Amino acid sequence: MRHAPALPGSGHAAAKTPGWSGSLCDVSFGPGAIPGATGTPGEIDYRLARRSLISEYKKGRLAQHEVCDAHPELVRNARECSEPSRILCPICEAAKLVLVTYVFGPRLPASGRCITSKDEMRKLAARPGEFACYVVEVCPDCAWNHLARTFVLTPARTA
């Protein structure tokens, strides 16, 4: 039967762990505490969920009509006011994905605002208030879409 190691500071051999002073104050839960973690505080990246969904599709557990279900307005925004990317659509593998950014916040429509340029994003960032941004990857050809990331827009951050 194995026993759990003793807590540091308890007088047992495990208490001599290098770099451990015996206080929970030494434990860091910030982004820098995770090796390889990058990103901006407050940003949520959905790459793992994306990878899982694509894997399920490629294994045949999801049909194309189940993953290529973008709302017609999202597809229109993808064609008219998006930012191109170099990433090939993982579903149809025929077109490059585009990024569509929506912003929600004070004095904006309840349905949000589709951002058409970085200049427009800078102007919004200069306004008072906190704005929530959602970046969606969209394939204009097959209508595949996936939320890529979310972040809070502040004057110091413009995408």
Can you tag this structure with a few keywords?
159 residues, alpha+beta, 21% helix, disordered N terminus, six-stranded antiparallel β-sheet, 6 strands
Structure report:
With 159 residues, this protein is α+β, with helices and mostly antiparallel strands. The protein has a domain at 43-153. Helices cover 21% and strands 23% of the residues. The protein is built from four helices and six strands, in the order βαααβββαββ. It has helices at residues 47-58, 64-67, 72-80, 118-126; strands at 44-45, 83-88, 96-104, 113-115, 131-138, 145-153. Strands 1, 2, 3, 4, 5 and 6 form a six-stranded antiparallel β-sheet that branches. A hairpin with an 8-residue loop joins strand 3 (96-104) and strand 4. The longest helix is centred in the N-terminal third of the chain and has 12 residues, at 47-58. It is elongated and about 45 Å long. Mean pLDDT is 81; it is low at 1-15 and 23-34.
